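Subject: mismatched residue count in predicted assembly?

I count 440 residues in my input, but I want to confirm that the predicted structure covers every chain. Input:
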Amino acid sequence: MQSFGFVYCIEPWLQRCYGAQPEALREAQQRHSEFFNTQPHMASLVIGMTCALEESAAGSSGEEKADKVARLRALKAAAAAALAGLGDALFWGALRPFCAALALAGAMAFARRSIWLAAIWSAAAYLAAYDLPALALRWGFLRLGYEWKDQIAVRLRDWPGQKTIRYLRWGGSLLALGACGLMLWAVPGPLRGLAALGVAATVGLKVLQVSAYKLYVSAALIGTIAAWAGWL
Amino acid sequence: MSCLGAWCPPVLAAVLVAVLELDVVQFGQFMISRPLVLGPVLGLLFGQPQTGLVLGACCELFSLDDVPVGDKLPLNATVAVAVSFLMICSPSRVPPELALPAGLLAGWAHQKLETLLRQRRRMFCCQAEQSLEQGRSPRLGCIIASALAEQAAWTLGLLLFCVLVGGPLLQWVWPFLPRGLSVGLGVAWELAPWLGLGVLLHALRPVR
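Triage response: the counts match. Full output below for your records.
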């Protein structure tokens, strides 16, 4: 379905390029309805690039146009695949956990004063921390994709994506540790050690690729067995 | 408030969630649907911010490393947090230790439902491809709008089923559960935030 979303996005531009040539417009729609899959926030870079290359193809004819269209297809597929990897690591792997850590740490700090404030902070901080950079990048990438055209791969080499991911992870780790400290502080003394042990055990089990849902079900099963055995 | 009137806020909230759920994958991805946003918002609307915050945090952290990469469809954390919260805050008043696993189960059911919906959406793609082959421009706006409406309608159906049927059923079942099982669910509920923190720390670990 992403391919038709892509066609829907660039349709006004295609109409502008091929408005007077209905057959060429239909061909352009058909070539963009081919399989397309990338990280949604990075798609605007591909859309910008495609618009620039379609504009260039529309201005040429014959064999030159065929060459440009073939190049466009190859570049679009390559860019979508490469940007998906970068986008997944940046947005899903770094920015989203960072936002969760920020919202959680703030909420834990505010919860001591007012739980209402904590809830408002959680929703507002998450949305602001995610959407401000994400929307700026979406809009900026559209423009940059149009400007960079087929030079996307070369230009992205200088883009500090990996550095940003590293900083977000470090910042997020510190915030998560802060949230963990505040939560442990709120727990009564004897249970504090158990709670810390639970966090450490989860980190260890996650390294072994055990999903959080399985850990939750396991906790329920262990509790049930302990209750039946008379330990709880 | 009459018995029927008491069900109005959860039903209206279910309609809101069904629309916001489109933000998960289909439309926008502005993160309005993330549990750590939706949970507190529902909590504020229902006057129970703590419940919303705790459920939102648990579902958010559980689903943190379960990402929609490629055609992988993770458990729907939005549906999970909404069902858990609405079961607790609806007149059925399901205990939180039972509502959270019920919500996660609903999120898993939505994942299966969406797999079927995605297969159905291929039909829309075939229609659009046929239009192009026949030399007609497909009405993409209408196709996309109907796909979104269908997704929202099925989500609403699932939410209403869970809240209006599942909630009262669980409330009725709860006193008959063996003591061991209810203690086990209680232990898992107490441990859930700590498990979530462990997931968060793991998700943010430095990677070379």
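The mean pLDDT of chain B is 92. Marking this ticket as 'not a bug'.
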